[in-house]
Amino acid sequence: MNGPVTYDDADAVAVETGTEVEGRDAPLPEGGLGCHAGSEMAYAARMAGKSEILDQYAKDYPTGPHDQPQSMCPAFGSLRVGLRMKRTATILSGSACCVYGLTFVSHFYGARRSVGYVPFNSETLVTGKLFEDIREAVHDIADPEKLDAVVVTNLCVPTASGVPLRLLPEQINGVRIVGIDVPGFGIPTHAEAKDVLAGAMLNYARKEIEAGPVPMPASGKSDRPTVSLLGEMFPADPMMIGQMLAPLGLAAGPVVPCREWRELYGALDCGAVAAIHPFYTASVREFQAAGRLVIGSAPVGHDGTAGWLASIGDAFNIPTSQIAEAQNQFLPAIKAALAAKPVKGTITLSGYEGSELLVARLLIESGADIPYVGTACPKTPWSADDAAWLEARGVKVKFRASLEDDCAAMEAIKPDLAIGTTPVVQKGKEMGIPSLYFTNLISARPLMGVAGAGSLAEVVNGAMANKERMDHMREFFEGVGHKDTAGVWEGSPNLQPQFRAQNAKKLERAAKAAKAAEMI
Q1: For residue range 275-296, what is the model confidence (pLDDT) as tens digits?
Q2: Helices 261-268/190-211 angle, 10° precision
Q3: E-only strand ranges, 210-353
Q4: Phi and psi (nearest 5°) for 184?
Q5: 375, 356 Cβ separation under 8 angstroms
Q6: DSSP letters spanning 494-514
Q7: Cα–Cα distance measured from residue 281 to residue 484, given in angstroms and rounded to the nearest whole number
Q8: Quick one: DSSP state of residue 216?
């Protein structure tokens, strides 16, 4: 599929109301959905015939210091992508406790539709009846009047047991069936699980395009070459990117993950892809299979916008003079906006959204000193320019950073502000360091172009101005206890150091036994 997409004559598109309440990007309850899957389940999955998919995940999403997620269950990422799509149903197959937690958090985020669940027990799992139950559920729900697609997701236990979603029919009465495995022992972060489903849908849509004409997207076909945008972003950012592309004679295409199935065709029908979030490895593979060029970084800040517009222009063979004209149209305004809202102070920055390097670039150009940037996502070719720009300015960039990495950097640097995940923010406030939660307070703002320049200054400067209040609160609560002795006690806490010593010896013996087993 190296040429443009061919559309059929159908133009009637059923459009549903939004599936998510606006403004509900509340902080992830990170501690509530901790994944306990480990190497035993990964071994079981391989023995059950899942080696191919696990090997692919290992290539797409290489693990870091931890072999399992440190935050949200990864299936939340793919679940969220499916629930935000119109005319798409979702069915989960997994342990009841996992499904409950995922369903709860999906509604916490404002999903306004049900999540399907296929229960199982030891007998149905072992005998294969679970797969038959899944197939029956898919047939029951596949109504072409209501749905374009059904997403079926294996969680840890069905994946470890080898439940073969690949044997489900590709479509039922015209409703597409997309089966994916999203185990906690194969996907390091929930951000990357978004790519698992987005990539699977792009793969399906690409094969449909190769088979013949496909329905036109609801928005129609642009009269200009388009740049598809890869990665979830603030709603104003695609519009700002479109404005910056216009002087080049280009238009912004759909954002992947998409909000409806036909947008996938429009996303594939592009001249190039902007990997705004650089970790969508499976999605990139599908775009490259369709013959589309993928461009890294993003139009963030002065330098980022200048470099990105040049890369886009080169990809479309646009004359240098026209690229310079577009740059001259936006760069002075961006520079002025950055100067009008300076940020002064030392900041450590970390998160798992994949946009951490972009945010760091924007804050540095605003005047901030950022010695450390940690991202839970892996290093990819599409983040190389951002990493090089930061490292050239003395920033320590840590890919696949662990919670321990982020906390150690904060403790060593003692910044004026710590931006990070919930546990980093908690640790920072315990130390009396003003702290901001990345997902809720940083990602929920525009970053691109003129709109992004200066958008972070108010919240960042406001937080750093709270240092005196943080010190007062720390002094006020001094002496109330810490960790297992936290709170107000009438007497002294009843400590049992002998139990801790006994458990420490047990753990030491277990570690030695495991090491000996590895040598054998």
Answers
A1: 999 999 999 999 999 999 999 9
A2: 80
A3: 226-230, 251-256, 272-274, 293-295, 346-351
A4: -65, -20
A5: yes
A6: ---HHHHHHHHHHHHHHHHHH
A7: 42
A8: P
The three-state DSSP-derived secondary structure of 318-364 is CCHHHHHHHHHHHHHHHHHHHHHCCCCCEEEEEECCCCHHHHHHHHH
Q: Which residues of the chain have pLDDT under 50?
A: 12-34, 36
Residues whose CB is less than 8 angstroms from the CB of residue 468 and which lie 6 or more positions away in sequence, other chains included: none
SS3 assignment for 69-136: CCCCCCHHHHHHHHHCCCCEEEEEECCHHHHHHHHHHHHHCCECCCCEECCCCHHHHHHCHHHHHHHH
Number of Cα atoms under 13 Å in the Cβ half of residue 12: 1
Cα–Cα distance for residue pair 412/406, rounded to 1 Å: 10
Positive or negative, the Cα torsion across 282, 287, 292, 295? Answer: negative
What integer best gives the mean pLDDT of the chain?
89
Residue 147 contacts residue 87 (beta carbons within 8 Å): yes
Q: Please report where in the chains the tokens 């577009």 appear, as a residue.
A: 326
Backbone angles phi, psi at 369, to 5 degrees: -100, 115
Q: Are strands 175-181 and 171-172 parallel, antiparallel or unpaired?
A: antiparallel
Distance CA 81, CA 180 (A): 13
pLDDT tens column, 40-76:
788 888 888 999 999 999 999 998 877 667 778 999 9
User: Given this model, what pLDDT does residue 520 score?
Assistant: 65
The residue to which tokens 């295409």 are assigned: 253
- pTM equals 0.87
Query: Quick check: helix, strand or coil at residue 2?
Result: coil
Structure tokens at 231: 């990665």
The DSSP bridge partners found for residue 295 are: 274
Q: Give 457-491 as a 3 state SS string.
A: HHHHHHHHCCHHHHHHHHHHCCCCCCHHHCCCCCC
> Residue 244: helix, strand or coil by DSSP?
helix
